[in-house]
Amino acid sequence: MTVSRYEFEPEAPRAPSEAQWASMTEAERAAVVAMLPSEVPRSTAPEGDRHQIPKKSALEQLRDWFRRHGRSVYLSAELPVYYPGEELFAPDVIAVLDVEPHPRDKWVVSVEGRGLDFVLEVHVRGNAKKDREDNVIRYAKLAIPEYFLFEPLHQRLVGYRLEEGKQSYVPIVPQAGRWSSQVLGLDLAMEGGKVRFFSGAAPLPDAEELIVRLDEMVNAQVVGALERERELLAQLEDEQRAREREQARADQLAAKLRALGVDPDALD
Prior knowledge:
Elements: H1 18-23, H2 26-35, H3 49-68, E1 73-76, E2 81-82, E3 93-97, E4 107-108, H4 109-112, E5 118-122, H5 128-141, E6 146-151, E7 156-161, E8 170-171, E9 179-181, E10 186-191, E11 194-199, E12 202-203, H6 207-259
């Protein structure tokens, strides 16, 4: 069987198929990877803060959580992703578990040896069908275990999971307003125009909230230090006043002794 030659298409970049990749030398593979764009051509205008804030918050929550728990998880936002023979796509948030989380310009499955584990898309405007329908089919076909879609304007969160041996997603049924992610070991919920992750009953903070907490801790420490300093100064002042009272009483006694013709120093 003859393997067709890989040809790069700038207008619709796609990775080589598995057969094409297998037929290449290491030098040819390196050249192809270098050729694949690390930026996604934007066909629509940026969607503004209501798109950026939930995406950024989700990424910060997950990065802080996995960093504190010492697990190597690669997380990124709008990173070009190349599956074999597939045109590039760039989900809003991706996670790949138990891989080296070093910086990357693109995720090439043939190079990394594995695909994505988790995808979160944030839809504000534009082609809703792409996120609500097309991606449900496409991500399942690519065997991405979990796909979540958050629509802040509609306050809508949906999740899909790929069951073993299946080629189509099964909707994740929420429990008490939370959607369980088996991949991440966390729950997702909607909160204040963002996606909030939970570990059990505990919410995961994002960077802004961590900064606020840090400020509060620092302020509390400063206030505590100032209060301790005031207490110490008050104690020193009390001790100084006590010494002054003792000295005044001693001076009064010495004056009385002198009035009686007694030298106070002779009594020492």
